Amino acid sequence: MIAIIGAGSSGVAVAKALKERGQDFVVFEAGSDIGGMWRYENDNGMSSAYRSLHIDTSRRNLGYPDFPIPDDQPDFLSHAQVLTWLEAYVERFQVRPHIRFRTKVEAVEPADGRWRVTTSDGAAATFAAVVVANGHLWDPRWPDFPGQFAGTAIHSHHYRTAAPFEDRDVLVVGIGNSAVDIACDLGRRARRVHLSTRRSAWIAPKYILGIPTDRWTAFLTRRLRLPTPVARGAIRWLMMLSQGDQRRYGVPRPAHPIWREHATISQELLPAIGHGRLAIKPDIRELRGNEVAFADGTVERYDAVVYATGYRTRFPFLDPAVFAVRDGAAALYRRMVAPDRPGLAFAGLIQPIGPTIPLAEIQARWLAAHLAGALHLPDAEVMRREIASHRERIRRRYVGSARYTLEVDFREYARQLRGDMARGIGGA
């Protein structure tokens, strides 16, 4: 018997893959239904979805390979539309009967070559393996600025609508996708909105010449087989043709090239700035009660601050002596398997250049093949070398930020996993 923790998009994909392999399993879900972060106001307390949220991956690239999103859906789905599609997936492959809802996992502990799982209902059972799929966008990371802010301060994880900020002066900290979405949402209701960024970001539109931007990327990397850095450089020039130079709107260009980070995807940010609904500010130097001092020497007064500053990777049910996340990353072979803890695996613990959901489905099939005995792992030392090699590539390729410790390149990573499954053995 195998335990899966979490019934979000990764957990249900693992469940479906295990079922197809004829494996016995149970899914533990803390909430009352499936969907993970895509269930708005999920009663498991872990969803960061806000009411206006729409996914940044276009429909054709978002779906599972064997369960694409229907063509009658829009290019960019809302959280509710993603959830409806996930619910259809669960029903189509009859995963729901295997899920124990309202059952939170409290502890996962090694037990004589197996794993003991203790749940919130007081029950405990042992399993041959545990697949952790509880997500990594639920434990807010708060910045540490000098001073104190006297107004309302929340993390973007807790933002739902702009209504509480009506006619207020609001500062949003960060320039990732959530930060920009929330700033644009606030710009319609708040009196004044500023967006503070430490090193800025490349702002990519959702559409270029009427075609979703990620379809241009897919064409360049999959059809023309251009290396990802080259393809993303080409996208930069298409962005310039489509929306012009972002500096024209007051958004600084990052010092690093576009291929060294995730671009921020927004069709609204630059027009919102152009219409005066929000403005860009530099990094925060100090909090001074209701005022904020910035690195350029300016000081502004705000009623509220929304910190869109990312998330910590954490597994509260795993004792650090059993498995610990260090420097924001987990030491996992192929980003899934703990070399020194046989039977402990993770799904969806990735931040890809490219869509997450179809990549998690490939992970699910890899894990199912491994747990069913059809894919054998190399020895622990080979796995540790692969982990070290991956970390070094990440260090060289991406900017130094906690955001990139879980990074993978969709095309490269998918090729690795498919190659492993074809050979029936993991590679170095």
Which key features would you list for this structure?
428 residues; FAD/NAD(P)-binding domain; 5-stranded parallel beta sheet
Please characterize this protein's 3D structure:
The protein is an alpha/beta fold and 428 residues long. It folds into two domains: 2-139 and 311-423, 3-Layer(bba) Sandwich (FAD/NAD(P)-binding domain), CATH 3.50.50; 142-307, FAD/NAD(P)-binding domain (3-Layer(bba) Sandwich), CATH 3.50.50. Helix content is 28%, strand content 21%. The chain has ten helices and 25 strands. It has helices spanning 9-20, 59-62, 79-92, 177-186, 213-223, 228-243, 269-274, 357-371, 380-397, 410-423, and strands at residues 2-5, 25-28, 99-100, 105-111, 114-119, 124-127, 129-132, 139-140, 147-149, 152-155, 169-173, 192-196, 203-204, 207-208, 211-212, 264-265, 279-281, 284-289, 291-294, 299-301, 304-307, 311-312, 344-346, 351-353, 407-409. Strands 3-2-1-7-23 form a five-stranded parallel beta sheet, with helices on one face. A five-stranded parallel beta sheet has the order 10-21-11-12-17, covered by helices on one side. Helix 1 packs parallel to helix 8, helix 5 packs antiparallel against helix 6 and helix 8 (357-371) runs parallel beside helix 10.
